[in-house]
Amino acid sequence: MRNTRNRKTSGKSRIMIFVNGEPMEWEEGMTVRDIIDVKKYVFPLLAVWVDQVPVPRGEFGDTPVPDGSNVQIIHMISGG
Amino acid sequence: MEKMKVLAEWTYVPAKPFRGYTGKTLKVNVGDRTFESKDVSEEVKEKFTGGRGFGLKLLWDSVKDTTRWDDPENEIVISGGPLCGVTQYPGMGKFYAVFVSPLTDQTYDSNAGGHFGPLLKFAGFDAIEVQGKAEKDVIVLVDADEGKVQILESPFDDVNAYTVTEALHEYYGDPGDINDRRFISVVTAGKGAETSYWGCLNSSFWDSHRKLPRLKQAGRGGGGTILRDKKIAALVVKTHDLTGTANNPADLDTLTRLGAKLHKEIITLDAKQCRMRTAGTSHLNEIMNEYHLLPTMNYKFGQHPDAGKIHSTVYEKMFTQGIADGCWYGCTMACAKAVDGYTLKTGPWKGRKITVDGPEYETAAGMGPNVGVFDPEWTTEVNFYADHYGLDTISLGTGIAFVCECFELGLINKEDTNGLDLNFGNKDDIMELLHRLGEGKDEFALMVGKGIHRMKDLFADHFGADLDVMERIGMEGQGIEVSEYVPKESIAQWGGYFLTLKGPQHDEAWLIFMDRVNKQLPTFEDKAEALHYFPNFRTWFSLTGVCKLPWNDIEPADNATSYPPQEAAKVPEHVQNYVEVFNAVTGKNIDKEELILQSERVYNFQRVFQLRLGKGTRKYHNIPDRALGPVWADEWEAREEYYDNELKAIGVDPAGLSSQQKCDQLLKKRREQWEELVDAVYKRRGWDKNGIPTAEKLKALGMDLPEVLATVEKYAKPEDQW
Question: What homologous superfamily is domain A14-75 in, according to CATH?
Answer without folding.
Answer: Beta-grasp domain (3.10.20.30)
